Amino acid sequence: MIKFKLNGKDVQSDSEGETPLLWVVRDELNYKGTKFGCGIAQCGACTVQIDGTPTRSCVIPVSAVADKDVTTIEGLNSPAGLALKQAWVSEQVPQCGYCQSGQLVSAEALLRSKSAPTDDDISRAMDGNLCRCMAYTRIRKAIKTAAQEV
Description:
The protein has 150 residues and is of the alpha+beta class. Helix content is 37%, strand content 14%.
């Protein structure tokens, strides 16, 4: 049994230790916001935060998060997370929406570390979060909008 915090709540998993965290979060704990994209940590759709750091959950075994804090899109309730969610709507970021949970999780970590991120900061923080709809300009604008609100 592996115990950890998920979105601030104590949870446990009976899955094998090598099971990817993504499947534990989605299938065992029923948090469906985190998406499966590529399965090889290249697209960012599965991004969660582990102890505040954006991490690709499709390649992290659940055993690696024992006694750690995991945050998914459902748990982004920080001032930065709430500002980002609002900015995502006001800037009309999503098209298909598939990548958005990973985008938001990464952007929230950025705004917690840099209150006024530059274009370079945003590019570095969001690198590897792919958007098939090519909404990168709106994503960047939403991050800047949220930064002004936090």
